[in-house]
């Protein structure tokens, strides 16, 4: 685990675009000195060196970072060739936010019998009608048939008696002497009757495979006769928090700091549709990290910190020892440059997040979110753009992810957006994707919605 990053300036568009946090700086250590000197950029900082073979002679080489859009695409495609968990059958109460793994076919006609669409009278033939004693209520025994000239009180949703030609709404009828019913408006045959099979017939496909289960889908499934649904299971995620310097309670002291990522990542991952099976604190223990990775039954392991090249940054060495396949090793994005994605088993991946909080959020949205979406078979959200209310300074080579709030038709960049800061993201509606070089006032930027912004805490299911 490496120390926190550099302090960001008070304005969103200044300072933090140019500051390398400690983990990002350490990531550059992997390049041989001659390569780093030859590849210095205009600001005097070292640019990434070309990839070199790993092994005893070239331990943990630094290489050109993966462009941000490509990294997201690689994460989404990483699970296409992976071994998938079998589909599961779950109760309707547990299906919200999952994706149908089989078509939803009607198990019965909807409605399954002729029903009244309104409170009023079921009438047979032309009026006026003689009102029969009693009434017809929803959920009760089948009513007696009516003959021409008869009427009976009926409730919304009640089964229509045989012989009925229409339902006369309560507000459109008038009763006279000797219980005679008269219509006060014109009526048509079949009026306010929902005929059997009006919505669907048994066997009709209501929804295709791949449909996201929303509250409305649950209602339709229940109406169509389902108690359970066949769905793609939630991805199982295990979070491994690294770092000896982290406290779980109290105030920072004696070089120790509070762990911000442990409390933040589990609920964030749940809003992305994951089942978080464990959050484990391992400190800076390489053996414990290896044991945790090799024994995990999660579909995705998320580690925090330890992705650079510091003396206790154990993620890269551990992945090498267990023979993991590195798919993404560094991303051209700020904050969050030293994030990584690896395939640890045929059916398991690992996302290594930087230890700085906002850099970890960047890694979560860059690598974990697309991978979890693919595992859960969720469709990719439609991208959208909004103009900036003020200019944002960019990094010379890398994409920047900048917290913004949405005000009217504009995105307003927030302060406190340095790699180690959460004050900006805590009040943000989205992250603006700022291309290398920055963006002028009024420029339209792609926005990444935060998962709770569109659905609310605890109810986000996409």
From TrEMBL:
<keyword id="KW-0479">Metal-binding</keyword>
<comment type="similarity">
    <text>Belongs to the MoeA family.</text>
</comment>
<dbReference type="InterPro" id="IPR038987">
    <property type="entry name" value="MoeA-like"/>
</dbReference>
<dbReference type="InterPro" id="IPR036425">
    <property type="entry name" value="MoaB/Mog-like_dom_sf"/>
</dbReference>
<dbReference type="InterPro" id="IPR005111">
    <property type="entry name" value="MoeA_C_domain_IV"/>
</dbReference>
<keyword id="KW-0808">Transferase</keyword>
<dbReference type="GO" id="GO:0046872">
    <property type="term" value="F:metal ion binding"/>
</dbReference>
<dbReference type="InterPro" id="IPR036135">
    <property type="entry name" value="MoeA_linker/N_sf"/>
</dbReference>
<dbReference type="InterPro" id="IPR001453">
    <property type="entry name" value="MoaB/Mog_dom"/>
</dbReference>
<dbReference type="Pfam" id="PF03453">
    <property type="entry name" value="MoeA_N"/>
</dbReference>
<feature type="domain" description="MoaB/Mog">
    <location>
        <begin position="238"/>
        <end position="374"/>
    </location>
</feature>
<dbReference type="Pfam" id="PF03454">
    <property type="entry name" value="MoeA_C"/>
</dbReference>
<keyword id="KW-0501">Molybdenum cofactor biosynthesis</keyword>
<feature type="region of interest" description="Disordered">
    <location>
        <begin position="173"/>
        <end position="197"/>
    </location>
</feature>
<feature type="compositionally biased region" description="Basic and acidic residues">
    <location>
        <begin position="32"/>
        <end position="42"/>
    </location>
</feature>
<protein>
    <recommendedName>
        <fullName>Molybdopterin molybdenumtransferase</fullName>
        <ecNumber>2.10.1.1</ecNumber>
    </recommendedName>
</protein>
<dbReference type="InterPro" id="IPR036688">
    <property type="entry name" value="MoeA_C_domain_IV_sf"/>
</dbReference>
<feature type="compositionally biased region" description="Basic and acidic residues">
    <location>
        <begin position="55"/>
        <end position="68"/>
    </location>
</feature>
<keyword id="KW-0460">Magnesium</keyword>
<feature type="region of interest" description="Disordered">
    <location>
        <begin position="1"/>
        <end position="68"/>
    </location>
</feature>
<dbReference type="InterPro" id="IPR005110">
    <property type="entry name" value="MoeA_linker/N"/>
</dbReference>
<comment type="pathway">
    <text>Cofactor biosynthesis; molybdopterin biosynthesis.</text>
</comment>
<dbReference type="GO" id="GO:0005829">
    <property type="term" value="C:cytosol"/>
</dbReference>
<dbReference type="Pfam" id="PF00994">
    <property type="entry name" value="MoCF_biosynth"/>
</dbReference>
<keyword id="KW-0500">Molybdenum</keyword>
<dbReference type="GO" id="GO:0061599">
    <property type="term" value="F:molybdopterin molybdotransferase activity"/>
</dbReference>
<dbReference type="GO" id="GO:0006777">
    <property type="term" value="P:Mo-molybdopterin cofactor biosynthetic process"/>
</dbReference>
<comment type="function">
    <text>Catalyzes the insertion of molybdate into adenylated molybdopterin with the concomitant release of AMP.</text>
</comment>
């Amino acid at each position: 685990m490496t120390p926190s990053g550099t302090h960001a300036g008070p304005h969103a568009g200044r300072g933090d675009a140019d500051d390398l946090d400690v983990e990002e700086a350490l990531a550059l250590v992997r390049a041989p000195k001659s390569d780093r000197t030859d590849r210095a950029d205009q600001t005097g900082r070292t640019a990434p060196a070309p990839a070199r073979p790993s092994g005893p002679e070239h331990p943990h080489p630094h290489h050109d970072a993966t462009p941000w859009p490509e990294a997201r695409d690689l994460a989404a495609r990483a699970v296409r060739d992976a071994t998938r968990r079998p589909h599961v059958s779950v109760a309707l109460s547990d299906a919200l936010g999952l994706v149908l793994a089989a078509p939803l076919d009607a198990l019965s006609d909807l409605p399954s019998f002729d029903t009244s669409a309104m409170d009023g009278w079921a009438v047979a033939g032309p009026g006026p009608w003689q009102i029969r004693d009693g009434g017809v209520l929803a959920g009760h025994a089948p009513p007696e048939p009516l003959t021409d000239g008869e009427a009976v009180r009926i409730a919304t949703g009640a089964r229509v008696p045989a012989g009925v030609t229409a339902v006369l709404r309560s507000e459109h009828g008038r009763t006279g002497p000797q219980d005679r019913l008269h219509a006060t408006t014109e009526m048509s045959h079949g009026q306010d009757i929902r005929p059997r099979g009006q919505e669907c017939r048994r066997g009709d496909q209501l929804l295709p495979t791949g449909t996201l289960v929303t509250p409305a889908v649950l209602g339709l499934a229940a109406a169509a006769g389902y108690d359970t649904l066949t769905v793609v299971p939630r991805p199982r995620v295990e979070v491994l928090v690294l770092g000896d310097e982290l406290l779980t309670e109290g105030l920072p002291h004696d070089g120790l700091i509070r762990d911000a990522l442990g409390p933040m990542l589990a609920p964030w991952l749940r809003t992305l549709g994951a089942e978080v099976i464990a959050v484990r604190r391992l400190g800076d223990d390489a053996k414990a990290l290896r044991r945790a990775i090799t024994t995990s039954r999660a579909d995705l392991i998320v580690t925090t910190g330890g992705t650079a090249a510091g003396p206790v940054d154990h993620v890269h060495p551990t992945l090498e020892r267990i023979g993991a396949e590195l798919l993404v090793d560094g991303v051209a994005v700020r904050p969050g440059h030293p994030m990584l994605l690896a395939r640890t088993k045929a059916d398991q991946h690992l996302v290594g997040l930087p230890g700085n909080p906002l850099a970890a959020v960047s890694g979560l949205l860059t690598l974990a979110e697309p991978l979890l979406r693919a595992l859960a078979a969720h469709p990719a959200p439609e991208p959208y753009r909004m103009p900036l209310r003020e200019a944002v300074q960019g990094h010379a080579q890398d994409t920047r992810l900048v917290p913004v709030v949405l005000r009217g038709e504009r995105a307003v960049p927030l302060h406190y957006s340095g790699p180690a800061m959460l004050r900006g993201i805590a009040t943000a509606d989205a992250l603006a994707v700022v291309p290398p070089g920055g963006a002028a006032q009024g420029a339209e930027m792609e926005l990444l919605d935060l998962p709770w912004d569109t659905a609310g805490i605890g109810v986000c299911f996409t």
